[in-house]
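Collaborator request, handled under Task 6.
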Amino acid sequence: MNSSRPAVHQFILPERLRRRRAVFYSSVLLLTSVATWFMADLLWRDNGISGLEWVLLVLFVILFTQISVGFVTAMLGYYVINRGGDRQRITRTIDWNTEEVPLATTAIVMPVFNEDVSRVFEGLRVIYRSLEATGKLEHFDFFILSDSNKPNQWIQEEVAWAELCKQVNGFGRIFYRKRRQQINKKAGNVADFLRRWGKRYRYMVVLDADSIMTGEAIVKLVAMMEKNPQTGLIQTAPRLIYGESLYARMQQFANRLYSPIFLAGLNYWQQQDGNYWGHNAIIRVQPFMDHCALPDLPGSEPFGGRILSHDFVEAALMRKAGWHVWLAHDIEGTFEEGPPSLIDSAKRDRRWCQGNMQHSWLITARGFRPANRFHLLMGVMAYVSSPLWLMFLVLSTIHVFNQVLTPAGHFAMDRYMRVMGRVVEVPEALALFLFTMLLLFLPKVIRVFTVMQRSSQAVCFGGRGPLALSALLEIVLSALLAPIHMFFNSKFVFFSLLGQGVSWVTQRRGAEDGTDWREAIITHGGQTFFGLVWGVSAFILLPAFFWWLSPVLSGLVFSIPISIILSKSSLGSQARRVGIFLTPEETQPPHELSRLTQNLAMCYKHMRPLETLRNDYGLLQAVLDPYINAVHVAMLRQRRPSEESRDWFSLLRHRLLFEGPGQLTTKETLALLLDAESMIWLHEELWKQPNSALAEWWRLAMRQYNVLTATPITALYR
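Structure tokens returned to the collaborator:
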């Protein structure tokens, strides 16, 4: 595990890589130049370019460059896939049919924060069994790294861990750790793990709480790392799964259908200068520990302080140290879940926005590779482009209104363009619009027709008819959602510039009942009002311009019903029944996903404690059940509190038993759960005290104890 600069092993000749990147950047420059020429000619026609028009032109160049990057990436990906794949990809370094590569010690780490306990541990069970089936389990250890700050959550995690270890014989191979202090969120959680146990392992596979990876995929990742000693990180491309709402199903359909060409194109030009997305990836531990410690940025939040979006920076630091970072986009068997609604997606973007905005400090950091600077820049632009688009559209509206309201001014939407001295019979503004639409939608259209030509692939999406209908519906819905996302991200960037930070909350993963009207009105009301004012003003002053704006206005004006409709799991279920937004993971699910679905259905069926006890059910188990109490105490650090602390703990214990858990704050409950002496005392005293002396809550808990334990605890996490 030497962390020095790795020996040079060339996957692709430098000259050839430079040619690939020259094609990529030149194509982006060419497309942007053509569009800029269109735009400049449109603005120049009357009396030259005014100050406002110069601003519009600069904004247009920036925004169209981003569109060109996406288009060129997709077209390169289509070229690569159409010719049978890139010969220089990382997965081709091993002949999987004939070559057997010895594996090394690997930790599979899953940081969690107030997540669905059943989903987390059933996911781990599936991964464990899948690795066991490969015959390579002895090389892997599992770590659940909890930052959960809810007492109920903490105890349920411990119970689930103990039961999982019992059922799969995983003691000594599956470990659970609960941090006392939640410092630096997920990045700090992983860093704490590495400080304690990192030197025991050559690699670690980092998962999210909703991640699933097959044993075959994990074994392949370790084998590729062993085969390529100069590689420090390999990122897979996880597929979205378990979408229940219409919004989630649309997202996972688009991810599954379109991402292959974008990912293949991305890998084509970046090669060993890849990126890290924070999960479903394998990392060489020692160089990561040596080189990827995250610095604190100057200043305070939101731009300063601890880095929130750590993954891009860690990839850049790994490359700075000379280690390769690869995207294994063609590795199958790697999955994750997406947000169930538009509002949940926006909440996640709020966190990501601040993290990506911090990267503006690092774009010019000393020693970073050009490709990593480009990744950081694109991460910033993913959010900054939204206020730029909004500014461009608003300024365009002002520009049009000025022309209409100026006595000598005019604004003709049917003007013809002049090319090389000739008059071309195409409206100039329409030509630019069509060119932009071509770049936005041509990759999707090509991908749909390519899949439809191959019946075996089309069947995975439900057949040619459902595939075409799903793709058409996705394009329409994406067009409606684009201005809504634009407003959300513009708001997030504005808040960040005002110095407003974000708190880290648990991501909602289930669809539940969808978005209610109150939440939708509060969230989207401003967007609706803005769209109405904008649209009415445009229609009064220039109806022709109103129709040009209508795609943007439609999404804003109808944002409330759109958000509600797309969040409904019932509509998502109906769409699935009729074959809309089907994915290969649904039509031909791998064994691991089928097993997880079955286990979760059984698990949720048995988890029905009384509503009165539900909020403190974990505390009930830790105090009342002797087995769970013993497990919990065994996992605590033994401390010797001061006399003052002893008096405080004694007071809390008596309040808990004789007044009930509802009289304690979350902080006080957590303090008791962290104190081994208190937990032992509580368990003993609860069974010693007569019922009449206990709080009514505990009397109810004890009456239901036999009922709740009549079903073996293993049924809760089957």
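The cover message to the collaborator said: "The first helix runs from residue 14 to 44. Residues 1-10, 410-426, 710-718 have pLDDT under 50 and may be disordered. Please let us know whether this matches your experimental observations."
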